[in-house]
């Protein structure tokens, strides 16, 4: 068994909801095997209050969560990422920085819960948590020690096409 701790980055444009949720869920569910971070290409500057409320209500710590630029992860001293997941379609289409170590990437797009009406946001955020948690559960079952890069990338793409995807389905 490999004792390596894999670094994972969740990207979204605003880094206020979906990528933050991904970071929290991966750090919780993948504890000991994965260390997750999140960032945005154009960070909002604050975490969406509904994301904080839901995560806290589910028993997750929200201490230290903040909306931040992906630039924080491109300079000296930044973690080398093994995996990068975009969780919004806009971020998937943007020109990303060059990441040290050539991490494996996949698009795990889901609807932006912050775009829902205020009345619908609680359910939209719960749905975002369900979809991201399911993707992370599928990811955590992958035998990363025994899959080659091509097989892993194929599996990551398949996970991104699971229930709730916003990405157009593409046959491999």
Can you describe this structure?
By secondary structure, the protein is an alpha/beta fold. The protein has a single domain, classed as 3-Layer(aba) Sandwich (Rossmann fold). Helix content is 34%, strand content 13%. It contains five helices and four strands; from the N terminus they run E-H-E-H-E-H-E-H-H. The chain has helices spanning 18-29, 49-57, 89-93, 121-140, 149-160; strands at 6-12, 34-40, 83-86, 104-107. The chain has a four-stranded parallel beta sheet. Helix 1 links the parallel strand 1 (6-12) and strand 2. Helix 1 (18-29) packs across helix 4 (121-140). The longest helix has 20 residues, at 121-140. It is globular. The model has no long low-confidence stretch (mean pLDDT 89).
């Amino acid at each position: 068994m490999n004792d390596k701790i894999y670094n994972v980055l969740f990207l979204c444009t605003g880094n206020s909801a979906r990528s933050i949720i991904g970071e929290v869920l991966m750090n919780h569910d993948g504890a000991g095997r994965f260390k997750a971070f999140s960032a945005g290409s154009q960070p909002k500057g604050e975490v969406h209050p509904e994301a904080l409320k839901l995560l806290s209500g589910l028993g997750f710590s929200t201490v230290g969560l903040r909306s931040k630029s992906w630039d924080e992860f491109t300079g000296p001293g930044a973690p080398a990422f093994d995996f990068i997941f975009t969780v919004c379609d806009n971020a998937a289409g943007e020109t990303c920085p060059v990441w040290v170590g050539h991490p494996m990437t996949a698009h795990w797009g889901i609807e932006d819960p912050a775009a829902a009406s205020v009345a619908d946001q609680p359910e939209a955020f719960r749905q975002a948590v369900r979809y991201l948690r399911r993707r992370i559960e599928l990811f955590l079952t992958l035998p990363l020690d025994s899959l080659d890069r091509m097989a892993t990338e194929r599996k990551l793409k398949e996970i991104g096409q699971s229930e709730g995807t916003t990405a157009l389905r593409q046959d491999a």
